[in-house]
Amino acid sequence: MSPKLILSYFDMPALGEPLRLALAMTGLPWEDQRVSKEEFMAMKPSLPYNQLPTLEVDGTLIPQSLAQMRYIGKIGGLYSEDPIEAAFADAAMEAVIDMHFHLRPTVHEQDPTKKMEMRKAMTDTFLPTWLGNLERALKTAGGSYFAGGKLSIGDIYVVCRLNWLQKGVLDGIPATIVDEYPLLCALIKSVMSEPRIVKYVESRA
Ligand SMILES: N[C@@H](CCC(=O)N[C@@H](CS)C(=O)NCC(=O)O)C(=O)O
Predict the structure, then answer these.
(1) Which residues form the GST C-terminal domain (predicted)?
(2) Model pLDDT for residues 175-197, shown as the tens digit of each residue
(3) Ligand 1 pocket: which of 17, 34, 51 to mutate (most atoms within 8 A of CB)
(4) Which CATH architecture has domain 5-78?
(5) Average pLDDT in the 22-46 region?
């Protein structure tokens, strides 16, 4: 019998969307619980690490989004049992965390001029290197996926972040920044064309 799965997160993509796409890819039933700020404040003291997202599995709350991704990967066949292949899926996810680390100060910067300077530095320096490294990792892995020649949580995690960049929601970072990386663009297309993901995206529209 499949476990009862409830993902709780705010009504935004951020850390939640890779989990939602991975859950959709498992083909298992799961509940997409969207939590308001008020609800979060009430539940925060009792949450593990006082944070969202949480993934409830048959009544047990799993904390930390990367741990949740790996759990979903294991039950959904999206995380190889081969330790090397699993490590490459992990590496792709860790690369996204590197990007968060660089982006976060630009999100919290209050001075608009300074914020735009930081974003320009990301656009001119950090992001081309980061995207180039991801493109190279994909090429080294065979060109289609980051790990083991098949779809994994690493691909889903990277694609969610690239999709977000392509939405152009970050002032000062052009929505076209991913366009010149053909393997990454092909990966986005391939992941977002997976029938279970298409179904999920249509269901939330
Ligand atoms: N390392 C954690 C970070 C979780 C996190 O920072 N969650 C934020 C929302 S994106 C949160 O709960 N913030 C509210 C708070 O800490 O009060 C993970 O990956 O799950």
Answers:
(1) 82-205
(2) 999 999 999 999 999 999 999 99
(3) 51
(4) 3-Layer(aba) Sandwich (3.40)
(5) 98
